[in-house]
Amino acid sequence: MKITVFGATGKTGSEVVRLALDRGYNVVAFVRDSRKVTIENPQLEVVQGELGDKETLRTALKGSDGVISALGPTGKPSDAELSDGIANVLSVMEEYGIKRFIVLSTTSNQDSLDKDGSRFRMRRNMIRRGRPITYEQINKYSQLVRDSNTDWTLVRIAALLTDKPLSKHIRAGYLGKDKLGSKLSRTDLAWFMLEQIDSADYVRKAPAVSN
Ligand SMILES: NC(=O)c1ccc[n+]([C@@H]2O[C@H](COP(=O)([O-])OP(=O)(O)OC[C@H]3O[C@@H](n4cnc5c(N)ncnc54)[C@H](OP(=O)(O)O)[C@@H]3O)[C@@H](O)[C@H]2O)c1
After folding, report:
1. What residue's CA is closest to ligand 1, atom 21?
2. What's the burial of 64, exposed, middle or buried (CB within 10 Å: 0-12/13-18/19+)?
3. What is the helix (H) or strand (E) element at residue 139, kind and residue range?
4. Residue 194 and residue 211: Cα distance in Å, rounded?
5. 72 in contact with ligand 1, CB cutoff 6 A
6. Contact in structure between 138 and 88 (CB atoms under 8 Å)
7. 202: closest CA among 161, 174, 167, 169?
8. Residue 148 backbone phi and psi in degrees, to 5
9. In Gene Ontology terms, what is one molecular function of this protein (predicted)?
10. Ligand 1 center to residue 10 CA distance, Å?
């Protein structure tokens, strides 16, 4: 199994890379600064580039069986490039016929299976007002993924992220319907995303996740 990981320098993305290597996968980490990659492994290839550069995206995606995006807003001006970046990733995936795409999102992106309520509306409004670019970009790129012909899964963060160790205890469901917790370990999040690579359970679905 060969996978390409975007956002591989991030706290969640680096856990995806580490756990994928533990599984014996070949991993291509697409990063904008290779000095940030601290993992060394003969099965890890690091491709440095920008999401706007399709040629480098081709190098990173060629021959991959699946793609995981742990990209997410970091509060920098480049956050505004995320949705164009995801559009480029989708375009190269289509060129190469790569179908499986697992993408980090948040519950700011509503799903038709959610049962909306005032608590969720209030939370969305807070993010929309407080971090408008984050809100806009998460919704924009999540919609691009939903509209694509890929076998996508949007893994929507529904809780506060923590650095707790792997427990493999994840709750996945829909807002207002399923019981979700208030915390989510990035390692468990990474593990859940990797579990989806060869599972059809959440294909073309967008579960909200927490511990
Ligand atoms: N903290 C929470 O409780 C919470 C709750 C809900 C959602 N979230 C969101 O969840 C996401 C994942 O969390 P995390 O802690 O793993 O985030 P993180 O460590 O900040 O990782 C974000 C990753 O995205 C990459 N990235 C961002 N913009 C990019 C761009 N324009 N081009 C290329 N790469 C780009 C970063 O690359 P660089 O290393 O090059 O910057 C990094 O690898 C974050 O976006 C966060 O906002 C957090």
Report:
1. 10
2. buried
3. helix 132-147
4. 16
5. yes
6. no
7. 174
8. -80, 165
9. biliverdin reductase [NAD(P)H] activity
10. 6
CB atoms within 10 A of CB 63: 10
Cα 7 to ligand 1 centre (Å): 7
The two tokens of residue 157 are: 């963060």
Nearest CA to ligand 1 atom 12: 72
Q: pLDDT tens track of the chain, all 211 residues?
A: 999 999 999 999 999 999 999 999 999 999 999 999 999 999 999 999 999 999 999 999 999 999 999 999 999 999 999 999 999 999 999 999 999 999 999 999 999 999 999 999 999 999 999 999 999 999 999 999 999 999 999 999 999 999 999 999 999 999 999 999 999 999 999 999 999 999 999 999 999 999 9
Count of Cβ atoms closer than 10 Å to residue 117 Cβ: 10
Q: Which residue type occupies 195?
A: E
Taking CA atoms only, the protein residue closest to ligand 1 atom 5 is: 160
Tokens of 79: 């956050």
C-alpha span between 25 and 18 (Å, rounded): 10
Q: Of 65, 67, 81, 68, which is closest to residue 32 (Cα–Cα)?
A: 81
